[in-house]
User: Fold this.
Amino acid sequence: MSDSPSVRTNAASTSQNAPIFRLFSDILWYIFYINATMTPKTETTLPVFETLLHSSHVCSSWRQTINSSSSLWAQVINVKFLWNRITREEIMRRTGDALLSITAEDHFTHSQQLLTLLEENWHRIRYLSFSIEKRSAWQSIEAGFWRLLERPAKYLETCIFNVQVLLQVDDEWIPPVAPDGHILFNDQAPALRTFVAPTTISLAAPWLTHLVDISLHGPLPVDQFLQALSSMPFLEILRDGNSSITRSPISSPLPKITMPSVKRIDISSPDNIQPYLDFLTHISPLAPSKCRLNFSVYPGQHRTWRLEDWDIATEILRLFPDFCGLSEAPSLELGIHRGKFGVTAHLPSYGTSSFEIMSVGDPSLVSQDHMQGFFPKLMQSFTFRNLHYLLFLVSPGPSLSTFDQNSFDHLSSVQVLETSVYSIQCLTDFLASPPETAPVMFPALQTLQVNSCPEKVDIPSIKLFLASRTTMGKPLQTLIIKMISYRLNKKARTVDMRWLDQFTGLKVIFLHLRGGGQPVVRAT
Assistant:
């Protein structure tokens, strides 16, 4: 079409004998349909509008198949390609009466054109992803957009609505808020499956029962939210990054809820986590090993944490392993730092679960003793059955009391340990203890990977760690060291690692990050 963006194609050189050109037309159409399915990921990598447009230029038969299908063009309405009026009218003509998928996620200035496009086609929108970052653009359409969201949405399946602006109200800057009495979709959205929007939902809305994916925006009292969840059997993904769940206004027992379909729960809160302890202790995934839980909290952002706050965080950490089946994880990451504790577990086929507590405010507002104490408390809460790989990182600051034999007993199955030179120093401080008190660490360990280049001052602790393995009758088989060479003051430097020759039978792998070749393997 003459008004389309220019596209460079290789149609002339395309082999008409390629297998794809011998497909039946209905199979070929279905391939185009899959490639034209819009998601947030496609629109940030390779927009489906471009994919479909390029495909229509490959050959005349493809062009005919694509241009004669209104449902294909209806799936690829990305507003950033359609600001030109002639182009927009031509593409919209091609969509016919098909259900639309629309994305508008740029820093656009044609906000009124967007609102008009949505208003004219609201009755047939199936997928809507809308993001705006300019305050002036949002203010020009705010009233009209809230009115639009009050209209029934018979065919709407996905609604992703992200307004990244703050509005001044009196002396405060706050996110946009729906007008009083606003009713989303007039309570009529029977096909809705995904809902992400910065507006408080009504827990009595009938369309909640169909949802598969929801991002919360509160306030939502925990007792009322739990009751609403009992009527959401298809919910798979639950996100809350807005501290939406609040304490119950009445002190009555909370209901216990089973979530039969849940696969992922993401929670992030700056301070007040009591409602989330209430929430997590009253829900149960039908299959814990198939549910991912990611919990982040940032103490000290607004106030000094009291002792009871740390107790609540500890309780959440203790229920974390059983909630998402961490005992089956083959891979684990542990980080103990000044002002931060984090654990991430990788479960085959089901992704990752994580717990992170990190000070983002004044470090003096956060108790380092409590932060460091999370490690033994986590280890005491469950037992790993299949743990094979451990990434263990400690930053300067943690007390040696953080580590004890009981904690390491729960890591006895680890075969591959990746760590830093400072972390090795912390571990070997225990190895220097009297034999009767020195812990037995990682009895199954076969491979040690040091993820930074050791300096001369680091070598004694690494030697002590390697020697301790031999003493206990469990010598390491492989040592992997990254960044064996580096530059200082524009001069290349190489650390002398010949001291490794004393460890007979140890295979040493030096991973050079420069040069792009295969790792250099040196057996000693």
Remarks:
- Confidence is low (pLDDT under 50) at residues 1-14.
- DSSP finds 16 helices and 26 strands in the chain.
